[in-house]
Every structure is written in structure tokens, then in C-alpha cells.
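Record 1 of the preview.
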Amino acid sequence: MNGHVTQIVPLIVLEKLKKYSLLVVVCLSLSGCASNSSKPNIDAAKKTPKSDRAMLHTRLAREYMGQKQLATAQLELEKALRLSPNHSDSNYVMGLLMIQLNNVKDAEYYLERSVKSDPENSSAAHDFGMLLCQTGKERRSVEYFEIAASNPLFKRAELSYMRAGECLDRINDTRAEAFLKKALTYNAKLRPALFRLAMFKKKNGQNLSARAYIERYMAITKPQPDALLLAYQIESSLRANDVAEAYRKKLLEDFPGSKQAESLRSIDRAN
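->
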């Protein structure tokens, strides 16, 4: 059945091909329109491998998606999949289109088929993991994050490990910590992983470790309200009152209208 999910930003970058050039490529490859003879055109099209023709339709669909012409994009992808039903990229892009159309059931179908067709399509595996995580299938999502990260050619393995950790942390699965730490082995300055680990450690009463992670986080980015509040809570738990007060003051002065600042003022009023 259909359902709404938060928009996934795909890892694959939609190709910014000039429309004229792309249409010429498709025209030459699919219909042979540069020739003066109709019969040779048809023969040339038939000799083009179906997978290549499917890819051309998929590229054109991406262009239409970039222009928000989703119905036209769907028609191109349907052509691609008729030519090559198990074409990994065509299934992947169709899955992304189904997400934009809030059709979760079909999105799952096409993304899963994309990964089964080519387990090295790490972008498809990662985005399928994201979809599963967002639709309450957190533990199943980990399988696909790991498939994505296991490809040595995939340049964003740390992102897949981090998302797996975040997803598992949402359901209090103890494996979350290991995935977040794995992400940091690829990128020690991965800010969301550092912040999530600080939260994880604080939640489990490991405040010294939480302090270490939030300090690493603060060292590489301008602190935002959620980080300042977490740092305040960690230092308060450690009875480092002067440090806690410094974080509290900064939160109230720099972000007076934030919900985090309001939560501190609510505590003050209650006391």
C-alpha cells in the first residue's frame, strides 16, 4: 500500500546533462534519426544492446525528474524496464521516483530489485536502507547499509555505517554504538556520528565518554542549541558546575529563542 515517508536525498547525483545534447544522444541511439534511410535506422536501433538502450531511457528520466516532470520520467523508466527488467540503475531510479510519489510499497520493490540485480550498486543499497529505516524496518535496514559499505569502490561507507547506527539507536539496539564507531574509523570528523555517540553515552550513563565525544564535536563545528544543551547536561551530570554554567550561558545568549533555551528557562522557573 502507499504511505508517506520523509524525502530521501539520493546518493546518486542526477546528471546535469544539457537537454539538447541528451535528446540528440537518445535520438541517435534509439531511433537513428541522423540517417536519411528509415530501414538502416531501425536495424541500428535493434543492434544496440537492450541494457544500453535502457540506460539511455534512465538518463532521460533523471533529467525529467530534475525538471519535476515526474509523469514523463515514469514513462521513460517504464520503457527502460520493458527493455531490461533487471537493469539495476533503471530499477534504482524508478525506486527513487516512487519515493517522490509517496508510493512506499513500489519503492521497496524497485530498490530491492536494483540491489539484487547488482549488489555493488551501493547507492541503491544505501537508499533502500534509508527507506526501510524510515518505515519502521530498522533491523532489516542494517543489511542494506552493510551491503553498501562493503563495496570497496563506494566512497561514502562512513555514511552508511553512521545511518545504520542512528537507525539502531532509535530502537535502543545495542549494536548502534559499534556502527557509529565504525563510521568514525573512516572519517574521524564525521560530526553527526560524534554527536550521536555523545547522546548514546549520555543515555547510558557513561558521562566521561559522552564528554569526550561532545568535545570532539565542539572542536570542529560551531555549536548549535542541541549540542550546547547536551554539553550542559553532560557537565551537570559530572558535577562540573562551572563548565556546565558556561554552556548554559552560551545557549541562552546565542540562541535565546530556541526550544533548548526555553527548556532551561522552564527548569529555572520550576526551581
